[in-house]
């Protein structure tokens, strides 16, 4: 340890951290290139070649040229994923039909089946078969 002072260790850690940060930025840019709807295939190929052949310059130019729209695409995708998740939850819970109208559906049927099973009116196997039919 005498031949590698503590300050050099901090300097090495700083460079390693900056390299890792750059790798995250590179992957983020490549992901954004493929996700972008406003670029055609040739433009995507051009940006990708630039980012891979001249990585530091390519990433820097991409962030300067298209950095603002990267955030806008993130927000749009997050809203779409949130809406899809909420629709899935509503559909899975049976709280609304395709038009958003309230319905009781599977939730009430499942609770009735659970009550029948708890009272001993149906067996566990019958309960699981009926539950599978309702959920499929």
Kindly summarize this structure in a few lines.
With 136 residues, the protein is mainly α. Helices cover 80% and strands 0% of the residues.
Explained architecture:
With 136 residues, this protein is mainly alpha-helical. Helices cover 80% and strands 0% of the residues. It is built from 5 helices and no strands. The protein is elongated. The model has no long low-confidence stretch (mean pLDDT 86).
Mean pLDDT level: 86
Structural class: mainly alpha
Largest sheet, strands/sense/barrel: none
Give the amount of beta strand, in percent. under 5%
Shape: elongated
How many distinct helices? Answer: 5
Poorly predicted segments: none
Order of helices and strands: HHHHH
- Please tell me how large the radius of gyration is: 27 Å
Helix content: over 70%
List the helices and strands and how they pair.
Elements: H1 6-35, H2 41-53, H3 55-93, H4 105-119, H5 124-135
Helix pairs in contact: 1-2, 1-3, 2-3, 4-5
Features:
136 residues, mainly alpha
């Amino acid at each position: 340890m005498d031949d590698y002072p503590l300050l050099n260790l901090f300097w090495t850690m700083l460079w390693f951290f900056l390299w890792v940060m750059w790798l995250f930025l590179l992957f983020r840019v490549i992901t954004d290139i493929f996700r972008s709807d406003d670029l055609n295939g040739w433009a995507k190929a051009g940006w990708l070649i630039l980012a891979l052949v001249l990585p530091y310059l390519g990433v820097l130019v991409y962030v300067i040229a298209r950095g603002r729209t990267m955030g806008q695409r993130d927000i749009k995708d997050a809203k779409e994923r949130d809406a899809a998740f909420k629709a899935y939850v509503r559909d899975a819970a049976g709280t609304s039909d395709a038009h958003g109208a309230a319905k009781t559906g599977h939730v009430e049927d499942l609770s009735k089946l659970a009550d029948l099973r708890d009272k001993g009116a149906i067996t566990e196997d019958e309960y699981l078969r009926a539950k599978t039919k309702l959920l499929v």
